Recover the amino acids of this structure.
């Protein structure tokens, strides 16, 4: 456990929340040297008292305040601790962290199981976990953010969005399928982003003369949730699903983000597609350089995999690195300076791709 010497209290527990609300000073007196307060957004009034303790002591790092409901948490903390906090986004496990529980994971088992810590630490059954997770998220968190007339409509939206993972989302088309307006769909996607259910991969079009796609792609923060929404409940299903390539791409890109965030780096990542359909799955901008990355779920390498990377080089954009192909095969090698690697076989995907120091 991180910070094992600090007392821990979850404000999700009604008894603890009641005690803290009834007498905040006595409650916090148990944490004279600080502590961990989980689900702090459940009792925002406590923050003023924590602020008083922090100001009085002058010590740094006394309290760790956590919460699963990000928008409310950010609002509560920004009002009480402006300029005195470090805010960290805690994503699900990275591939590196999962290997602490399963040294040789199967990629399609990871797609259907996902990366939430409890699934691996407690060996929970993914189908039950995600069913309960979604019910809690929709019933509690979503209701707190937007007015939903029909929960079933939002759940339908989630499922249809999972079917578009790794794709540029057409709001009007998705709205027609869901039965909601494009502005409503845009608002719902914003809610999913704010609560760390999905993230966007924006297009890269800086200094490119050709006409390019300028809409973002959507990925799920946890690929296991996307798989669950698609009705994928086994590794075998994941390996045969028509969207296996998209889900594998989701897993890889999410891990690159997690690996960067775990190093304290907010990654600059994009995709590129021109009006003729030529595309690079991922562009990483780091230290002034661009790294083109192609992502393939196939276990057998083909020279076709590097053609898009070479095509991108031919655009003669400044400071483009040789790039990489990430695939599901056993061998790692270089071909015409392009690295070919399996992300499950490297210690850290961000470190494997970023320019050297």
């Amino acid at each position: 456990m991180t910070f094992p010497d600090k007392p821990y209290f979850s404000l999700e527990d009604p008894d603890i929340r009641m005690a803290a609300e009834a007498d905040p000073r006595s409650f916090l007196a148990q944490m004279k040297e600080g502590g961990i307060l989980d689900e702090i957004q459940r009792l925002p009034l406590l923050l003023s008292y924590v602020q008083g303790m922090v100001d009085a002591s002058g010590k740094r790092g006394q309290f760790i305040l956590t919460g699963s409901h990000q928008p409310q948490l950010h609002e509560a903390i920004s009002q009480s601790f402006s300029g005195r906090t470090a805010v960290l986004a805690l994503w699900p496990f990275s591939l590196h962290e999962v290997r602490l529980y399963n040294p040789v994971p199967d990629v399609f088992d990871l797609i259907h199981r996902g990366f939430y810590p409890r699934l691996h630490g407690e060996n929970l059954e993914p189908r039950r976990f995600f069913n309960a997770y979604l019910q809690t998220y929709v019933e509690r968190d979503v209701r707190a953010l937007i007015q939903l007339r029909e929960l079933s409509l939002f759940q339908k939206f989630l499922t249809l969005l999972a079917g578009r993972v790794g794709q540029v989302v057409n709001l009007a088309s998705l709205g027609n399928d869901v039965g909601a307006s494009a502005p409503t769909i845009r608002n719902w996607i914003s809610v999913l982003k704010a609560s760390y259910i999905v993230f966007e991969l924006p297009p890269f079009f800086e200094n490119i003369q050709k006409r390019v796609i300028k809409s973002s792609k959507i990925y799920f923060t946890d690929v296991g949730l996307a798989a669950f929404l698609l009705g994928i409940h086994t590794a075998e299903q994941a390996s045969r699903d028509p969207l296996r390539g998209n889900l594998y791409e989701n897993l890889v890109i999410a891990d690159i983000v997690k690996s960067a965030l775990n190093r304290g780096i907010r990654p600059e990542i994009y995709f590129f597609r021109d009006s003729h359909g030529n595309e690079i799955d991922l562009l990483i901008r780091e230290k002034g350089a661009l790294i083109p990355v192609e992502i393939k779920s196939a276990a057998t390498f083909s020279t076709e995999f590097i053609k898009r990377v070479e095509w991108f080089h031919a655009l003669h954009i400044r400071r483009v690195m040789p790039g990489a192909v990430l695939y599901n095969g056993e061998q790692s090698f270089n071909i015409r300076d392009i690295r070919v690697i399996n992300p499950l076989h490297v210690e850290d995907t961000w470190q494997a791709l970023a320019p050297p120091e």
About this structure: The chain has 16 helices and eleven strands. The mean pLDDT is 90. The two ends are 32 Å apart (CA to CA).
